[in-house]
Amino acid sequence: MRRILITEESDASGNPLISWGDVAGSVGNFGTILPLFFAVSLTTGMPLSLMLLLCGGWYIISGLIYQIPIPVEPLKAIAAVAIAEQISPGMIAASGILIGLLFLILGLSKGMQRMREWIPLAVIRGIQLGLGLILLRSAIFSFGLQDPFFFLVCIGIIILFLLIRHIRDVPDLSALCILGLGVGVVIHTIGIPVIAFPRLPILIIPNLTEYLNAGVLLVIPQIPLTLANAVLATSLLATELYNRPVSPDKLSLTIGIMSLSTSMLGGFPMCHGAGGVAAHYRFGARHGSALIIGGIILIVASTLLTNPKTLDAIPDGVFGALLLAVAIELIKHGAKTDNRLITGIIAILAIPAGIAPAFGGGLIMSAIFRYHSHKAKNYTNIKEQ
Questions:
Q1: Residues 291, 286: Cα–Cα separation, whole Å
Q2: Number of domains observed in the structure of the chain
Q3: Least buried of 53, 167, 236, 377, by fewest C-beta within 10 Å?
């Protein structure tokens, strides 16, 4: 059936460059981005408006570079430690610069492609599945149970669009409707936010102590997560969903440049992520135009959310419902594995231990599994002789 188009412009395959699905999917990952930015701003004092401004700019750049929805989001391990330990902005900038340099070098040296060939599919799928389960837990316990009314209302909106799509070929506008509901609650609660210029970027130069502390506290936990989720899992899932090869080395390059630039300009270090790929796809995004639209929305938001109280007025249930939909999409794709045992163990381990330890444990388990399989095969061959 004919899709509803916003424009008649098409790509080489005849598909529209912008559809209603791209508009709806442009905000699909906001349920992850906004709560993290809000919490970081609240605990570290980093300007929320500047983080949104720089993230919005990279949304647009990513959409232009990749031509498909390759997401832009904060480095999660660094964000988690920063929120828990109230890390200084200087240390956060130092961690982003170190991560940026590392992944820039890996991308330029084609190191990521070699790593993808070396790391088994079951390990990458385990990371996807584990991340999906972690997001599912966050959606329910961190957001849903804190605001059950709006959580259930927003889930109802998602289910309604699923039912409608079974009857008619219409785009899934549930994410837009859910965020629209959140904006309506904000206006009803505190009135229309006052438009103000966001904090302008300033050059940040961390000192040696901040680099040393950041390397131990922030960079070491972040590297495995970025490697497994932001590069390898993102490459695999994006290629699978959009039927277009996405090079892990190219992802590593853009992560390096993003992390360096945002950190040095006073923002939060950024990366890509499989969860974001699933989020944009789940809500209908199919082209890079979705990220361009999302970037414009974030830049506009940077002029409205200069006061953290504005974001605080959005019901928790809004973020919970968006995260729930993303989690289900990730779980669905994480289950497509060639070794359910290893994938399942990694996913279960990720829930209490985190992505980085689960990734390391998965590599060890996979190596042991390969060793025993190879040993058993050699024994069978000798026995047959």
A1: 10
A2: 1
A3: 167
